[in-house]
Prior knowledge:
Layout lengths: L17 H17 L13 E2 H7 L9 H16 L9 E2 L8 H9 L9 H18 L4
Parallel strand pairs: 1-2
Amino acid sequence: MYGKQHGDPAKTWDIENWDEARGRVRELLRMVASGEARTRMRGGSGLISYGEISERIPEVGAPHGRGLATILGEISRTEFREGRPPLSAVACYQEGDSAGPGFFSMGRTSGMTNPGETELEFWVRRVGECHEYWKVNARA
């Protein structure tokens, strides 16, 4: 069986090498945040769409699938635990106007949000922190 199982057989994704896929997604997000990678997002915004992540790293599956969502959550929780901003902040909808609901849920459950902060304020703050951190610490 391929993939990663989260206690529930219905949540197993056909990702043959989970750790390798997660590492490739993390590196792509890091490069986007630092400005090293160009994306199709308009205006060189330092963001990447879920669809473009799936195109560049097809083994993660569909742009809005559980495999990619789980990988993004794992990356951001790890980054936060290690004192860095949550890298998945730079992943967003193709329109570039927001992250998905999983990002906001992960932020609330991981203690990353500020009291009274809206989802948009949380996302904008975390995107800014990612850009600032990764431009200075390009290889952390």
